[in-house]
Amino acid sequence: MGRRERDGARVSVFASKQRERVELEKTESGKEQWIDLRRELTAGMRDYMYGRLYKRKSPNSDDLEIDVEAALSVVQTLEAWIVDWQVYDEDGEAVDLSPAALGALSMETSELVMQRINELRAERDARKKAGAPGQES
């Protein structure tokens, strides 16, 4: 269960569990820093990410509108794509992965990670155009 055949090859119907590592600069003391990304989002993570971008127009309304503050933030995207990380603060202390920590990343670091996420999305889109399996994200 959970696998199908495509051109004679077995193909999973689930998002890949493979990870993509983004290497970051070492700390001043030489500690390795990295961020692991999902190679593709699950449907649930995609829905979670996009669902956070919308809010109800009023408490009793079913009408939704884009939450401009959330839409302007990359934190939701990073939260959905990042699986694990090893990063340290300026005192050399390990920092736990959390929305607050993601929001505190430098612009340079968040742009580097977002660039790789966009590349992974482009790879997925190319696979879809070629007829290969791939998940939405």
Provide a quick synopsis of the model.
This protein has helices at 43-51, 68-71, 75-81, 99-103, 107-129, and strands at residues 3-6, 9-12, 19-24, 33-38, 54-56, 64-66, 82-86. It is of the alpha+beta class and 137 residues long. Strands 3-4-7 form a 3-stranded antiparallel beta sheet. A two-stranded antiparallel sheet has the order 1-2.
Describe the structure.
With 137 residues, the protein is α+β, with helices and mostly antiparallel strands. The protein contains 5 helices and 7 strands, in the order E-E-E-E-H-E-E-H-H-E-H-H. Helix 1 runs antiparallel to helix 3 (75-81).
Keywords:
137 residues; 3-stranded antiparallel beta sheet; two-stranded antiparallel sheet; 5 helices
Largest sheet data:
3 strands, antiparallel
Distance between the termini: 23 Å
Q: Which percent band covers the strand fraction?
A: 15-25%
Class based on secondary structure composition and strand pairing: alpha+beta
Instruction: Name the helicity range.
Output: 25-40%
Q: Can you tell me the residue ranges where pLDDT is under 50 for at least 5 consecutive residues?
A: none
Count of individual beta strands: 7
Task: Report the C-alpha radius of gyration, rounded.
Answer: 18 Å
The whole-number mean of residue pLDDT values reads 82
Q: Can you tell me the overall shape?
A: globular
Enumerate how many helices there are, as a single number.
5
Q: Please give the order of strands in the largest beta sheet.
A: 3-4-7
Order of helices and strands: EEEEHEEHHEHH
